[in-house]
Design brief:
The complex is a heterodimer of chains A (305) and B (244).
Chain A: E1 2-5, E2 10-13, H1 14-31, H2 36-45, H3 50-74, H4 80-107, H5 110-140, E3 162-165, E4 170-173, H6 175-191, H7 196-207, H8 214-236, H9 242-264, H10 268-291, E5 298-302
Antiparallel strand pairs in A: 1-2, 3-4
Chain B: H1 6-14, E1 23-27, E2 31-34, E3 41-49, E4 54-60, E5 63-74, E6 77-90, E7 93-97, H2 101-104, H3 107-112, H4 131-146, E8 155-156, E9 158-160, E10 164-171, E11 178-188, E12 191-204, H5 206-217, H6 219-238
Parallel strand pairs in B: 2-12, 7-8
Antiparallel strand pairs in B: 1-3, 3-10, 4-7, 4-11, 5-6, 9-10, 11-12
The chains are: A mainly alpha (305), B alpha+beta (244).
């Protein structure tokens, strides 16, 4: 059954969209990441214009992260102070990101930028996760290895404006989470992602937050950054398709519930290895599309009346 | 010839029927409504002529500006490196005739009445005629043909007996919205002797039109509602987890 998407101006099979939302929701349930990094490329793949795919993914992400935060909040796993500091940086970053997006769209380079950013980010992250999870697998077979320190002290801990984050058991410079939030905010706007897959490792390895607090806190700031991106995209580029976002959310709810049950049965390092493989597969596909000779080197863009 | 726009033809043919109603034609439907389940539409054009002759039909969607970009390989990656703007290109074009165009009209007449894709005025802005300019025009036509917005071949106008004729115009799901002009020409002795222009409206209706219109008129409020809807949906989605 086809559904006509009013902003994307294409007809898409509603069951394909539900399945897509479901698959991304499943990943959210299993891995605790937003899944935006997969959603946007897949939407482009089924024929949604890239600019609409990016903006509508951000809209979908608002809903997905609200439900995620509520679940983590009930378990007491959200550091609100840290979330708000990250958010301050994130909002500033998303304003810059939407501005860059608009500029690149006018220059005709937005699709290239989206693809290159994805290849670099997903490729790097997938490789790092792969190495880390393989190490973890090997460590399992060699017990008695010395545990590492939670985090190393380095130049980052010499920065000014230090503050205490009780829930995360940290005393660090607020410039660190603000800077991190800013970088993720820029990518959110350009790529239509929550940035969970950048934010989560950075919070664990760079800020040194306890792993249990990370997903809920990351999702908390993603709600606001994604909401800000949605508003700015709707206002500046008119590319938010609310119908598309809602259909994806419906599929996502079902997928997330199946996913969280499935995820509970797997070991953490197995999960990370699977996610790494998935991320690398998406990066490889996008890299292939960038370098392979296009079927038609010409593309056309109609001016809106 | 340059200044001969679609509006010009419209005025010209308003005077047409005064010459003795040589040609009458109408559409089975004057409104194509794009609804949530829209997968394309077909409209039948039918009519009668008062004597011998051939019939040609042209359908033009609203003219729009279009940018054509070409990718070239830069450092191993395919990048949009050249772009050309075209002003006032028909967003949809269809042509049909009772016999091949070159058999029924002279090339000058075909060019004047924009009969056939090759007679559409598509001039790259700020670019002198060259092989490169032609390549961009060819690419634009090919893209439109692949999207089924330009015809791959001449459509068929079928005669039922000597006087009655009909043809079917197909509109794909991605048909642009706006006011279309359907022009019907009566051709005798390689010249157009009569013509008629009928408007056809392609419009989004129902909830899609409301969403699209609202997103354009009140982008800020639309964005806010999109965010709130997603938040409520997210909240609802989190509820079943409470029991777990």
């Amino acid at each position: 059954m086809d559904i006509y998407l009013p902003i994307a101006e294409v007809s898409v099979d509603v069951f394909v969209l539900l399945a897509l939302g479901g698959a991304v929701g499943f990943l959210t349930g299993v891995f605790g990441v937003g899944g935006g990094f997969l959603l946007t490329p897949l939407l482009i793949f089924i024929g949604v214009p890239p600019t609409v795919a990016v903006a509508s993914s951000a809209n979908q992400l608002v809903g997905a992260s609200v439900s995620g935060v509520l679940v983590h909040w009930r378990r007491g796993n959200v550091d609100f102070k840290m979330g708000y500091v990250l958010l301050a940086g994130g909002l500033a970053g998303s304003v810059l990101g939407v501005w860059i997006f608009t500029l690149l769209k006018r220059l005709g380079q937005i699709e290239l930028t989206i693809s290159v950013c994805y290849v670099v980010l997903l490729g790097t992250l997938g490789a790092l996760m792969m190495v880390e999870s393989i190490h973890a697998q090997l460590r399992l077979h060699r017990p008695g290895m010395r545990r590492h320190k939670l985090h190393q002290h380095n130049w980052m801990h010499g920065l000014p404006l230090k503050a205490r984050f009780r829930r995360s058991k940290l005393y660090i410079s607020t410039l660190l989470p603000i800077g991190l939030g800013f970088v993720v905010g820029v990518f959110s706007a350009i790529l239509g992602i929550g940035g969970g897959f950048i934010m989560v490792p950075a919070m664990i390895y760079m800020l040194g937050m306890p792993t249990s607090i990370v997903p809920g806190t990351s999702l908390l700031q993603i709600i606001f950054v994604a909401a800000n991106v949605t508003l700015l995209q709707a206002y500046t580029n008119r590319t938010v398709d609310a119908v598309l976002a809602l259909v994806l959310l419906v599929g996502g709810v079902i997928g997330a519930r199946i996913g969280s049950r499935f995820g509970a049965r797997l070991r953490g390092d197995q999960l990370r290895l699977l996610l790494a493989l998935l991320v690398l597969a998406v990066a490889a596909k996008l890299a292939f599309d960038l370098t392979a000779r296009p079927s038609d080197p010409y593309s056309i863009v109609w001016e809106k009346p | 010839m340059q200044a001969f726009s679609t509006d010009g033809t419209f005025f010209l043919f308003c005077a047409g029927p005064a010459r003795g109603e040589a040609l009458v034609a109408d559409l089975t439907n004057h409104l194509i409504a794009i609804t949530t389940g829209f997968t394309g539409a077909s409209v039948v054009l039918f009519g009668a002529i008062d004597g011998p002759g051939d019939v040609a039909v042209v359908v033009r969607g609203p003219d729009r500006d279009v940018t054509v970009r070409r990718k070239t390989r830069v450092a191993g990656i395919w990048v949009n490196s050249e772009e050309v703007n075209f002003g006032n290109v028909p967003s949809f074009y269809f042509v049909a005739a009772s016999r091949p165009l070159e058999e029924i009209v002279s090339p000058a007449i075909a060019a004047f009445y924009r009969l056939g894709v090759t007679n559409l005025e598509m001039k790259p802005e700020g670019m002198s005629p060259s092989r490169l300019a032609d390549e961009f025009v060819t690419a634009l036509v090919r893209t439109q043909q692949n999207a089924r917005l330009f015809p791959n071949s001449l459509g068929k106008v079928n005669f039922i007996g000597e006087r009655l004729f009909r043809t079917t115009i197909e509109f794909p799901a991605n048909v642009p919205t706006g006011t279309y002009l359907v022009q019907v020409f009566l051709v005798r002795d390689r010249d157009v002797v009569s013509g008629q222009t009928t408007p056809l409206v392609v419009s989004k209706v129902g909830i899609d039109a409301d969403v699209f219109g609202f997103a354009g008129r009140q982008p800020g409020l639309y964005g806010a509602i999109a965010v709130l809807t997603a938040m409520v949906a997210g909240w609802l989605a989190s509820l079943p987890f409470r029991s777990a």
